[in-house]
Design brief:
Layout: H1 9-40, H2 52-70, H3 90-130
Length: about 130
């Protein structure tokens, strides 16, 4: 039994690209949730509010995952209407929308990481002063 029976080469490439893209979004989602977990833990009674950026990033990465469903089926996401070659269609535009959501999510992650480190550094300085 062959998974690719009846598919053109372009459709096989489209399926592989959609698989890689979906897994990329899953990794980003896991990273956002892990960053939220480690960034939001209270230390010495202080809750770091910068972790909200990681929640925003997780939401945006979830929207990226949803965009792969909008562009379904995966073997048709990156091909033209006839399925003979890679091209741009309405499904491909939906994939691009997902990439835009992912770019905003990555930006939110970077903002969250810098804000968390800034809050951590300020908490360490307060702890030194309180001694």
């Amino acid at each position: 039994m062959n998974l690719f029976t009846g598919m053109t080469n372009a459709e096989i490439v489209s399926l592989a690209l959609a698989f890689v893209l979906f897994n990329f979004y899953v990794v980003l989602e896991a990273a956002a949730l892990a960053a939220f977990y480690f960034g939001s833990r209270p230390h010495r009674g202080q809750v770091r509010s910068a972790a909200i950026w990681h929640v925003i990033a997780a939401f945006l990465f979830m929207m990226s995952l949803v965009s792969t469903v909008w562009a379904a089926p995966a073997e048709k996401s990156f091909v033209n209407e006839t399925g003979s070659s890679l091209g741009t269609t309405d499904r491909f535009v939906k994939v691009i929308v997902g990439l835009i959501f992912a770019a905003f999510g990555i930006t939110s992650m970077v903002i969250g990481l810098t804000a968390t480190s800034r809050q951590r550094r300020a908490a360490q300085q307060r702890a030194l002063l309180e001694g």
